[in-house]
Amino acid sequence: MKRIFNLFLLCVLALTAVSCQPNRLRIMSYNIRIGIGMDNKTDLQRAADVINRVKPDFVGLQEVDSIAERSYWVDQAKALGEMTGMHYIFAPALERSKGLYGIAALVKEKPISYRNIGLPGKEELRTFLVLEYEDYLLCNTHFSLVAESRKESVEIIRRVIAEYNKPAIITGDFNMYPTSEEYHKMDEMWMPLSDTTRFTFPADGASCTIDYIWGREGYKYKVLNYEVIDEPMASDHLPLYIDVEF
After folding, report:
1. Which residue has the higher pLDDT, 13 or 44?
2. Residue 5 confidence (pLDDT) above 80
3. What is the pTM of this model?
4. Burial (CB count within 10 angstroms: exposed 0-12, middle 13-18, buried 19+), residue 162
5. Domain residue spans in the chain?
6. CATH number of 25-245
7. Which of 46, 65, 100, 161 is the 20 to 30 A CA-CA neighbour of 78?
8. CA atoms within 13 A on the CB side of 70
9. How far apart are CA 237 and CA 200, in angstroms?
10. Residue 217: which residues within 8 A CB-CB, separation 6 or more?
11. What is the average pLDDT value for the chain, to the nearest integer?
12. What do you get for the CA distance between the two ends of the chain, in Å?
């Protein structure tokens, strides 16, 4: 009986140790400009090559076409998924060039579920993608060029994330500077996990930061590594990633 009890105790301790292990993920954000490089050539393989070098667990992609005339009728999220060996989720924001245009996520592990929530944009509609996993959320977005729409988007995201009781990470092209009012509004509910002093745009001579990775306030995050990747040709934005424990 004592031997059985000891074995049971060991099993409990082992399960407890496993459940206490922190999540460790490599999170990447990349505005791919529908595959158009700084040489004005459309070549998704260049973006895929960057992703394959980084080997992320999650990539938030912005400016993604789906079967549009201007990008040669390619389902870009699916194509990048095939090029990288990752699962893909496309989140359309609007119709564009006889197809769809929006954002996407590439993931190593499929989520339990996902949601595509529309965001405002006076110049064009935007969207917010939420992937739910058992212990956390991974999200991606692309904010408007208009400050008023960005402020509204911050509030919409706040309301959506409030429905969940778990940590969340958001990647995206937020089209806002760290000195802007909407950035400070975002900063009230989220903590920047990427280095806001590292410039991300334009790719061939970066002079400002508009791409970020954020973590939901109220949870602990340990950023183990952060990098803005020097890739001046594949897109007009530089990709960035973090290694994070939470």
Report:
1. 44
2. no
3. 0.92
4. exposed
5. 25-245
6. 3.60.10.10
7. 161
8. 15
9. 6
10. 188, 189, 190, 191
11. 94
12. 39
